[in-house]
Design goal:
Radius of gyration: 17 Å
Strand order of the largest sheet: 1-2-3-4-6-5
Mean pLDDT: 93
Number of strands: 6
Number of helices: 4
CATH class: Alpha Beta
Structural class: alpha+beta
Low-confidence stretches: none
Length: about 160
């Protein structure tokens, strides 16, 4: 039996509170915004309860967008980064240079748990924190694509 999206949304808020995170609720849309501080840069997370797909989707924009002259390098860098990621992935829009993190937690036949929500947020934050400064350095010309690739291959 499928879970009700309103129950999932309320459970998500309960679990975020139990984990000690501060967040903003947007009840009409079943959306939660959560801001964290990474090692170098702030991390904005947006959690959506998507009723039709029966998932909780976490999206996090990576700022700033890749400038036009760096968009192909950014596309390759996103592909290289995604290759080694086990949970979640980066999305990339080459038309405007937007990079964003996305991770999904399905809830179709089972209630979401505090441990699942904790994993969703902690792993997402860790991955975003690992890559947001690399993408920023690449976008600003402080790191070449070759250096980005080499840093990935060194890990």
């Amino acid at each position: 039996m499928a879970n009700d999206a309103n129950k999932v949304y309320n459970d998500l808020c309960t679990h975020l509170t139990a984990c000690g995170w501060k967040y903003d609720r947007h009840d009409d849309d079943k959306v939660i915004t959560l801001n964290m501080r990474g090692d170098d840069l702030p991390i904005e997370m947006i959690l959506f309860v998507k009723e039709k797909q029966q998932v909780v989707s976490l999206i996090s924009p990576i700022r700033p967008k890749a400038p036009e002259d760096k968009r192909i390098d950014a596309a390759v860098a996103v592909n290289v980064a995604n290759y080694g990621i086990v949970f979640g992935s980066f999305d990339y829009d080459v038309s405007d240079g937007e990079i964003r993190w996305r991770a999904v937690l399905p809830y179709r036949d089972a209630a979401i748990t505090k441990d699942q929500v904790n994993y969703l947020v902690v792993v997402s934050a860790g991955t975003i924190d690992k890559y947001n400064d690399k993408f920023l350095m690449l976008n600003k010309g402080m790191m070449t694509l070759e250096q980005f690739i080499a840093s990935e291959n060194a890990e």
